[in-house]
Amino acid sequence: MFEDYGNLKYFLVPAIIVGTIKLTILGLSTVSLIADFLLPATNYTKYGSKKGAWALVTGSSDGLGLEFSKQLAAKGFNIVLASRTQSKLEALATEINEKYGVETKIVAVDVTKPGADEEIFTAIKSLPVAVLVNNVGRSHSIPVPFAETDLEELEGIITINTTFTLKLTRLVVPVINDTAAKLKVKGLIVTMGSFGGLLPTPYLAVYSGSKAFLQNWSVSLAAELPNVDVEFVLSYLVTSSMSKIKRTSFMIPNPKNFVKATLSKLGRRNGAQERFATTTPYWSHALMHFGIDQTVGVYSKVANSLNYSMHKDIRRRALRKAERQKKAL
Ligand SMILES: NC(=O)c1ccc[n+]([C@@H]2O[C@H](COP(=O)([O-])OP(=O)(O)OC[C@H]3O[C@@H](n4cnc5c(N)ncnc54)[C@H](OP(=O)(O)O)[C@@H]3O)[C@@H](O)[C@H]2O)c1
Q1: Within-domain flag for 4
Q2: Where does the source fall among the domains of life (predicted)?
Q3: 235 within ligand 1 shell (Cβ under 6 A)
């Protein structure tokens, strides 16, 4: 019996040590998660707000981009608005001028077109731009098996989410560095990620891959730019034309509340405790991210299977709806 106990201690002692380390990490991460939500809001004067600095927001005429534009204007940044529809941009520019008393500039451009990055760069190169919000993005029109993905959709997602975003950032970084030096402020680059990229997402494989690509790119960039804070923002669903969800719930905020949470917590990790230069800012998304990370993990078979069932079901319902609409014509 004593011999058995002697053997057991070789397993028990390491198990207790590993368990204690894991529980300590869980405890510290939980404290850090709570602290991130309780600490005071981010102060934007360090990025040049109210000092004449400009913020460039892509995909700015609708959804999250529209809210980033308005809420950054409310903080005292002049705003460059870039998306396709001239009329929407003009209306938003007028609203921002009147409501927040800051300057605006609009660039109506389709970012899938060759040279779109240079067109935006030409419009901003002489402005003291300190903030870039890489918000423009495209997803699949409905969940689809990868092998059946329409080629235009595949190329559109990759061009908008990755190629264009990288090419524009490459051009804007020197402008931000110049502004940081001239105004004696820090620069800021915010890039929109997604739970679709946090978790490998079957039936949204191209979108998922593009956002996962942005995650690694953005965090790599964060280490390279000493005068610029580079932040990757993770979001579960938000009501918008992209998500096609109209009704809010505790898991699905509207763009206004999502962006408010993002801007007030920028620089903290919130639900993304295991990641550098990354935040999951909205409280229910943060709890979901933290919960998955501390249990099955984002790359697990369990998470993948649940995600697969969810998107297969969304596809089934989307196809049924399309069929009903076809019959109604
Ligand atoms: N909504 C969500 O549930 C959710 C969740 C996670 C992450 N995200 C991410 O958040 C970001 C914003 O999403 P959202 O839901 O706010 O999208 P959205 O409501 O569909 O708005 C997209 C914006 O991008 C512009 N845009 C679209 N295609 C463009 C193109 N080819 N060239 C230039 N501008 C273009 C649109 O304006 P025009 O049509 O006038 O061009 C619009 O201003 C995306 O990166 C998305 O991946 C969203």
Answers
A1: no
A2: Eukaryota
A3: yes
Report, as residue numbers or ranges, the catalytic residues: 207, 211
pLDDT tens digit sequence for 136-177: 999 999 999 999 999 999 999 999 999 999 999 999 999 999
Q: Kindly give, in sequence order, each residue whose CB lies less than 8 Å from that of residue 249, ignoring residues fewer than 6 positions away.
A: none
Q: Is 112 in the pocket of ligand 1 (CB under 6 A)?
A: yes
- CATH, residue 52: 3.40.50.720
Residue with the larger pLDDT of the pair 2 and 53: 53
Chain centroid to Cα 92, Å, comes to 22
The preferred substitution site among 83, 199, 211 for testing ligand 1, maximizing ligand atoms within 8 Å of CB, is 83
Ligand 1: residue of 56, 92, 206, 242 to mutate (most ligand atoms within 8 A of CB) is: 242
Is residue 9 assigned to a domain?
no
The angle that helices 2-38 and 283-294 make with each other, rounded to 10 degrees, is 160
- Band of residue 5 on the pLDDT scale cut at 50, 70, 90: low
- The Cα 325–Cα 329 span in angstroms is 7
State residue 278 phi and psi, 5-degree precision: -140, 145
- Is residue 318 in a domain? yes
Is residue 148 assigned to a domain?
yes
Which atom of ligand 1 sits closest to the CA of residue 111? 32
Ligand 1 nearest-atom number relative to CA 207: 47
CB of 141 sitting under 6 A from ligand 1: no
State the alpha helices, DSSP H only, in 116-270: 116-124, 151-158, 165-183, 195-198, 205-224, 255-265
Residue 277: is its pLDDT beyond 70? yes
Q: Among all chains, which residue has been given the structure tokens 């190629």?
A: 163
- Per the structure, how many domains does the chain have? 1
Q: Residue 118: which domain range?
A: 40-328
Residue range 173-196, pLDDT digits in tens: 999 999 999 999 999 999 999 999
Q: What is the number of the ligand 1 atom nearest to the C-alpha of 64? A: 16
Say if residue 286's pLDDT is above 80: yes
Helix (H) or strand (E) holding 28: helix 2-38
